[in-house]
User: Fold this.
Amino acid sequence: MGRKLLLDKANVPGIRGYEVYRREGGYAAAEKALKNMTPDQVTDEVKKSGLRGRGGAGFPTGMKWSFLAKPEGVPRHLVCNADESEPGTFKDRYLMEFLPHLLIEGLLVSSYALGSKATYIYIRGEYAWIPDILEQAIAEAKANGWLGKNILGTGFDCEIYVHRGAGAYICGEETALIESLEGKRGNPRIKPPFPAVKGVWDRPTVVNNVETLAAVVPILNIGGEEYAKIGVGKSTGTKLISACGNINKPGVFEIDMTISVEEFIYSDEYCGGIANGKRLKACIPGGSSVPILPANLLLKTVKGETRKMNYESLSDGGFPKGSMMGSGGFIVLDEDQCVVKHTLTLARFYRHESCGQCSPCREGTGWMEKILKNIETGKGKKSDIDLLWDIQRKIEGNTICPLGDAAAWPVAAAIRHFRDEFEWHVDNPQECLVRNYGLAHYADPLEVVTPA
Amino acid sequence: MADEKKLLKVTIDNITVEVEPGTSILQAARRIGGDVAPPAMCYYSKLKGSGGKCRTCLVEVAAGSTADPRPMPKLVASCRTNVMDGMVVKNITSEKVIDARNGVVEMLLINHPLDCPICDQAGECHLQDLSYENGKPGTRYEFSRRTFEKHDLGPYIQLHMTRCILCYRCVFTADQLTEKRVHGVLDRGDHSEIATFIQQSLDNDFIGNIIDVCPVGALTDKTFRFKNRVWFLKPVDAHRDCKNPKCSGKVNLWYRGAEVFRVTARKDEWGEVTSWICNECRFEKKDTADWTIEGPTKVSRHSVISQGHYVGVERPQEVLYDVLDGRKPKLLMDIHSISEVNRPEIDLSKIQGPAHSTNFEPHEPRGTTGVEAGNPWDSDKKGVPDKY
Assistant:
């Protein structure tokens, strides 16, 4: 049983309210930070913890905080990125819905460390019921003196505002989020300047994911060094994984990043195995935009080592033979699933969510979707597969924001690992409408190349 | 001198140039000129905040600076990346750049109607130039091209959304030159479009400049529409004492014979307007008597306009009535005496442009006069075949 830091109290009845949360030891970290520590000490503690951004890119949070420009007389802001829109990812929703005070406390401590007197939670429009939960939690915290003017008599002022987005995936990109927060069209900005220098209203800004900010609370409670001991290598602490797809127990799990992928899928503590006794075909380990992996590459790396659920192990082998931790949206596909159809679904999503600002992504995502639709419905040609590869290659890396890459990677990985399935769709235009390619050889053990 | 600003050395395609700090790679490359300057479809040096969107100006940075000579991992948009001292940039000497640029041009063209033969921008279109340099003769795109609902932008400006490449230049122009911007980009992704939110006409003063900044034929001059091809016109530098304090009054007059067909702002060698002009100068003053002529405009010899097909120094004589011997032209097309295919009550001479089958639909006559039926070649209309 892994150690739980974020969700350990999630099942306590009434934890959503202030009274129970406080009784269970809540706001101890805020008290500790505000009364006994300077903002720089809090930042140091986060640096020592080795906490990495939980939103997808995995950038060290302490380092991001230390990049924040601190010019005299200019307000700084902390923005909480709750625009969790990656298909397959729903961990932040769980946190905000059941433990709103954990996020508020994390925001308070982080605001203190960064000197943000106005902190924003940018929440996606589709989470229509959560802003009310958060606003109630903010009101409770304020009534008990955790927000507002002169908190705990330290002279630190902090207000938290909840900003409802209008439902756009692109607004999860930090500069697009900032534009949207300013009331503009959610188009990503061109970097540099980075938000740490010029963010919201041209003020220095830090944008962090919900889970990252919530993790600051246990870091302060147990200490950064203690937190860094959990996990392995540079993957410290615990990570929330939202597992979905063809598994027996879909849901949000907190793992300590030492378990293997195989254990995560098959143990009863976590996913509980593949549903209906089917076999594993493929998996997207970190949310829809990371590369899909066939079963054999998922469970073992190309070197024959067991693949673990952490940042380094999941990306072992690079893009050709590995994937990414991403935002922790774990999507499992069993032997009945069609990878072509699956890729089409993702391509349709990215076409719909592209902001339309830069040309490769605006035009390329739609083109990929149309070709994939042809292949899926049995109208494809062999040359279409190469064309798809060429289109994704020309989108990747040539766009302003990472959405272009995010749209290109699933298509690239699907063709890379499942090319025979695409070819089968082209060769059997009638058959592909009624049945799918099945498991084929995707679960066969990999041949490990012995070093010469 | 001590207070002299230190110049930065940057090498682009093996040519070294010294520029002031804060200069973008694109501007440094333009200092060198020629093929070294990357193409720019969305960047406009006169418009603050423009650039970075079209991705045609991508370049490879082989060395970041003298202090940190690591190469940049991705291709960068040269219009929005500032030079550092000792930076080494590869533009046309990099295969990666050429490959990426070909990709971008292909993407820009897959939904473009390619209706150059009927487009007023043809001959001075940046997308034409770009595709000539970096495009392929054929397309790999096999699907129907994107179409849009039509938006009327008022008496001055014609919008062809299908031709638009969403460079946002017109949005910046309206923001920075006019008092109030009433148009913008609506919707998202591949269906985003330039439009006014509620049907309004664009008639702010200085809004006419969006015609000049548009790199393609998406925004064209309604007062010049379908009147002439630019390569038949002769551009002349002229000025007038405009009462508008913000208007420079310095323009190009485009003549055919003695007639001024259109008035545009003057452009520099990179196709950028050098000084903005007001709507009055652009749309109302189309008479030589309004202007002081300075002399012929210098046109780049690479431009089709410089080919000098200035046909007809005299206004062509109207000969049709002589030929018809006093009859009205419609009589030539009147076939009702021999055919019942077309309905006699529809007056063909009142249909704008060639008649179309939709003019003769039995139950839904699209405007009894046929005037509303419009031009079937108008690419913005839905249902028009998209492959030419």
Notes: DSSP finds seven helices and 13 strands in chain B. Chain B has four domains: 8-102, 111-221, 235-307, 333-373. Residues 333-373 of chain B form one domain. Helices of chain B lie at 25-32, 95-110, 126-134, 169-177, 209-213, 279-284, 320-324.
